[in-house]
Amino acid sequence: MPIVAQSTETTDWVSRFADEVIAESERRAPGKPVVVASGLSPSGPIHLGNLREVMTPHLVADEVRRRGHRVRHLISWDDYDRYRKVPAGIAGVDETWAEHIGKPLTSVPAPNGSSHPNWAEHFKAAMIASLAELGVEFDGISQTEQYTTGVYREQVLHAMRHRRDIDAILAQYRTKKAPAKKSQKPVDEAELEAAEGSGAAAEDDGSSGSAGYFPYKPYCGNCEKDLTTVTAYDDDSTELTYACTACGFSETVRLSEFDRGKLVWKVDWPMRWAYEGVIFEPSGVDHSSPGSSFQVGGQIVGIFGGEQPIGPMYAFVGISGMAKMSSSKGGVPTPADALQIMEPQLLRWLYARRRPNQSFKIAFDQEIQRLYDEWDRLDAKVADGSALPADAAAHSRAVRTAAGELPRTPRPLPYRTLASVADITAGHQDQALRILSELDPADPLGALAEARPRYDKAEAWINTHVPADQRTIVRDEPDAELLKSLDEQGRASLRLLLDGLADHWSLDGLTHLVYGVPKVQAGFSADATPKELPPEIKTAQRSFFALLYHLLVGRDTGPRLPTLLLAVGQERVRTLLGE
Ligand SMILES: [Zn+2]
After folding, report:
1. Bridge partners, residue 263, by sequence
2. CA 82 to ligand 1 centroid distance, Å
3. Residue 521 is inside which H or E element, if any?
4. What residues form DSSP beta bridges with 310?
């Protein structure tokens, strides 16, 4: 049942794709559920950048579902891919993992200490947990399971029968440089693979030996690696002979009953489009080049009796502020890292509001505070009905799915305020609650739980992404020297502030007070608006604020002053300001 049909009747990109996908599904498979797909390779921690591979079809699938259609979002776990290299910096992994290179990802041991049965399962689990938090509904398909139980047997035999047709299609592109595989990768890794040159190309295309071209590669029956060459194949008996260059093993098997091997990537992908009837599957921009898997797949899919999906190219998603992040997880930011510091609604919004071909950055630095301000302003506009239709649509896609609302923070206090409070209180929850309940004395926060999980996210951000030299440390003792050096005007400004503290002890009250002190000193009313004031007032305000920061935290700047004052507490403020 469509839940919010009205608010999504706009021309945002999600709606436009949903129109196209529904029409195409009706044409290709009338009466069947709409199928959209994503592919993820659990070859290591799944990069936050790869989340676009999932979020793009998710948002479209969700819109299709909201309109009352049945839809399946497949996530193909490419866990039967070969283990290409040992990623750096993974806890519980050492150089001995290199001996597994060439085996399927599900045959590589999980990092030491993992509760998962193998490498692929270990890295899939983290992604699955993040997708649950993000409200992404999907059908996961393990390619290991598909291949090793013979699900694709007919498709494999069909590809072998048509190997010359496949070879002819691939031959058109062989001279061109092989592009990277589907998933988005950090630049250095992509470059590395491009530099591998023909090796990577052979891996994606299949190999031509003296016996001809074969789009299928067995994993060795002795060492489990894919360093095998098919040396003979008989179409009638399906007898296949291969030799392993890693261990020298050789055997002849009957492909009609053999389940330890897979189609090469450029054949595997279009085979699955046809097998699953995929209508929509986006891919990274590196696939727009001639000879890309997506383009070649569009020619190969016909051999399997299918059609190419609607497949927009999505642009790169960057990360800002990760330089300071620890490399405990291979230095790779994952969706779980993002969800530690931001609510799922915010992360969903970043994807919903940008068209797939627009790149954007996910902020782990100070920018996250500005982003949250923007989000809260949009939230308020949606609440009072003043948001523009496309903005309201993006908001709706962020906060709910066809299944309902995502859990939200009951009292979403400003992220920057929460971050400052977490910064200053350094884990003391009773202090945090005291400060937060003083923000708005007319409607005080009753328990920290009302500000969660947003409070926890802000606290995690402060603890993991704000460098030590930017943390706020409130002075233990008054700065006697600075206090003694103050002139008459400096002392008078502190007096005005101290006299007003008790009557202004709230976020709004203190804001009024700290801006008002320099006005009153210059002979104006504390309520005077900027138009009624000379420009010099700004200078006076700035030096007054700098004085307060120095006396409270020993630096030029810090969290917003009203928040800082509340956080420090009235008694301690009085002491530090020399009362
Ligand atoms: Zn072998």
Report:
1. 216
2. 14
3. helix 507-521
4. 280
Greater model confidence, 164 or 425: 164
Distance 225 CA to ligand 1 centre (A): 6
Give the Cα separation of 443 and 424 in Å (integer).
Answer: 23
Position 193 pLDDT exceeds 50: no
- d(CA 129, ligand 1 centre) in Å: 36
Q: What is the mean pLDDT of residues 559-571?
A: 90
Q: In angstroms, what is the span from residue 233 Cα to ligand 1's centroid?
A: 19
230 CA → ligand 1 middle, Å: 13
Q: Which fold has domain 480-576?
A: Arc Repressor Mutant, subunit A (1.10.10)
Centre of ligand 1 to C-alpha 103, Å, is 10
Residues in the chain: 579
Residues within 5 Å of ion ligand 1, judged at the Cβ atom: 220, 222-223, 244, 246-247, 249
Q: What is the Cα–Cα distance from 452 to 317, expressed in whole angstroms? A: 28
Determine the residue type at 537: I
User: How confident is the model over 349-360, as a mean pLDDT?
Assistant: 95
Question: Using CA atoms, how far apart are residues 495 and 533, in angstroms rounded to an integer?
Answer: 22
pLDDT class of 439 with cuts at 50, 70, 90: confident
Q: What is the CA(228)–ligand 1 centre distance, in A?
A: 7
Name the pairing type of β-strands 404-405 and 400-401: antiparallel
Q: Is the confidence at residue 283, as pLDDT, over 80?
A: yes
Q: How far is the CA of 84 from the centre of ligand 1 (A)?
A: 16
Distance from Cα 226 to the centre of ligand 1, integer Å? 8
Instruction: Tell me if 230 sits within 8 A of 211, measured CB to CB.
Output: yes
Distance CA 314, CA 287 (A): 9
Residue 239 Cα to ligand 1 middle (Å): 19
Q: Please give the distance, rounded to the nearest whole angstrom, from the Cα atom of residue 247 to the centre of ligand 1.
A: 4
- Could you tell me the distance, in angstroms and rounded to a whole number, from the CA of residue 112 to the centre of ligand 1? 25
Q: What one-character-per-residue DSSP string does 85-119 give?
A: ---TTBTT--GGGGGGTTSBGGGSPPPTT-SSSSH
Cα separation, 127 vs 470, in Å, equals 32
Superfamily in which the 1-405 domain is placed by CATH: HUPs (3.40.50.620)
Q: CA angle at residue 221 from 220 to 223, to 5 degrees?
A: 65
Residue ranges, CATH 1.10.10.350, the chain? 480-576
Q: How far is the CA of 88 from the centre of ligand 1 (A)?
A: 26
Domain with CATH 3.40.50.620 in the chain: 1-405
pLDDT for residue 211: 82
Quote the ligand 1 centre to 111 CA distance (angstroms). 23
